Amino acid sequence: MSTAPRHTNKEIDAALEYATGNGWAVLKSTGGSAHAWGVMRCPGDCPQVSIWSTPKVPENHSRALRRAVDRCTHRPGGGEE
Asked: What is the pLDDT of residue 34?
């Protein structure tokens, strides 16, 4: 089990576990934003990815988070389609 903050949605939480397992940092927002739960940051210089608190379709958001990790060029085998 990683030390990533836990999201209330199980699909998104699983995607965050996947991200931390691949070297990404998951940072929970400390502000009072109604939309952003936090951000994921790549160990390299890829753009950070916002994690929504209540996405309309959590499964789609979860897949988008995993896709960002898979497309990262800073991990072995990353960036390939």
From this structure: 65
Q: What is the pTM of this model?
A: 0.83
User: What would the two tokens of residue 66 be?
Assistant: 């995993």
Q: Does residue 12 lie within any of the structural domains? A: yes
Is position 79 within any domain? no
What the block records as the tokens of 47 is: 């753009």
pLDDT digits (tens, 9 = 90+) for 4-28: 788 888 999 999 999 999 999 999 9
- Count of C-beta atoms within a 10 Å radius of residue 65: 26
**Is the pLDDT reported for residue 30 higher than 90?**
no
Which amino acid, one-letter code, is at 33?
A: S
Kindly state whether residue 34 falls inside one of the protein's structural domains.
Answer: no
Q: Across the strands, what pairs with 50?
A: 39
Count of structural domains, the chain: 1
Which candidate, 39, 36, 46, 34, places its Cα nearest to that of 20?
A: 39
User: Residue 11 domain-assigned?
Assistant: yes
